[in-house]
Amino acid sequence: xxxxVAGHARGLAYLHDVLERVEGAAEELLKLGLTDDExxxxxxxxxxxxxxxxxxxxxIACADGQTGEIARTIKxxxxxxxxxxVRIGRRTPDYAGARRQLVAAQRARRGAxxxxxxxxxxxx
Length: 124
Prior knowledge:
It is a single chain. By secondary structure, the chain is mainly alpha-helical. It has one domain. The chain is built from six helices and no strands.
């Protein structure tokens, strides 16, 4: 999954995979000297105890700024990987629905950013 994520977000994608698979990894990651933004991205990508999958995806979809953008990019790659490896008949979250929701959020946020910069250039 992480290999399909570009640039500086690739390292965070690998760390996200570690957090999903290794008990106690979060404490070890704190020792790595991650920036506040990197920790924020990883916090967005980490599903909270008792958090529904839908609430988890919505939290990522609605996240603001560059932190949200990076988290959505990583989660989209993660969902693509899950969709590629889903076993028929196995009970899994609605990965396809989550992917559609994140893509729509990403497009809406990019459109809002573009509209804001166009408005600013017209005012100048």
